Each structure stands twice: as C-alpha cells, then as structure tokens.
# Entry
Amino acid sequence: MEYIDIIDKETGENIGINYPKPEVHQKGLWHRTVHIWLVNSKKEIMLQHRSPKMENYPDCWDISCAGHISSGEDATTGALREIKEEIGLDLDVEKLKIIGETIHQVVLNNETYFDNEYSNVYLVKGDINIDQLQMQESEVKNLRWIPIQEFKKWVEEKRPNLVPHPEEYPLLFEYLLKN
# Structure
C-alpha cells in the first residue's frame, strides 16, 4: 500500500504525518503530486489516454505522466518513478525541467473523492518513440503525440474527454511559447 505525506494547506510544507493513499482522498488531506509533460522537436505534446479502470477521469486524455509523491520521496524522484511506472521510460534527472507549481482542489465521484494537491509541473523535451514504451495497463490505455496547437484547441473547447487542469494549462502554454 502506498503512503502519502500530508502537507499544510497554506504553505505546502510536509507536516510529518502520512496516510495510505485511499485515506488521503477519502479525508481530503492535502498532499503533493507530480505532473510531467513530454514534448518533441515537432512541437507535439504526448498525451496519455487513461485506462477505463481508473477511479477518476476514466477513459479520458491527460498529462503525459502524473502521480503522487510517495511518503519520504522528493518531487524529482517521484517524477522519475512515475515516468518509469506509467510508460516504461528511464530518464536522467537532467531531462526534467521544472516549469512551476499548481494548487488543485476538486471533489469527484459523487463527493466521495477529495483531491487537494500541490503539483510540481515538469517538462521533458525529447523525440520519444511511443512504440518503444511499455504502458502500465492498469493506468494507461494509450499514448499519442498531438500538435501543441491542436491540444490548445482541445483545452479551449473544454473537451469532455480531456481531464481538466485549468490552473496548469496556462502555465504550460506560457512556458512553451517562451521556450
């Protein structure tokens, strides 16, 4: 069972307590996650099609890789672990570029799942062949590269099959525009 460190809502600092992941969401405890966007030289962004078995946003398109930071783990280590677990990609730490942090609060699943999180947002640039990746079947149904401009349209249209990240998309697009 995965344990998650609990953080202070106001400061984002670890308060020295951890809980099993399901309990974190049942109680609405504040915690940390990592979001990793992969971008290639063709100005495409990799999207993950979530498994229909996922508890939240099943069968929807989402961030390239994302997940919880396990108890005792730092954000960078958590990001590298999530990339390896979800899509089978081994990355060097130098490839991870932190582009910001978001605060996200949402209630899902008929008010039974409370997601209160601070997310470290990373970007990875690289020409990665999706066919060579090993997807974690329990979480990932498919992966695809999509032109950034097309993805931006998806966000603007608020497509129902796209996981909403209203606090994160502007951060991502602003970074991509400047870099």
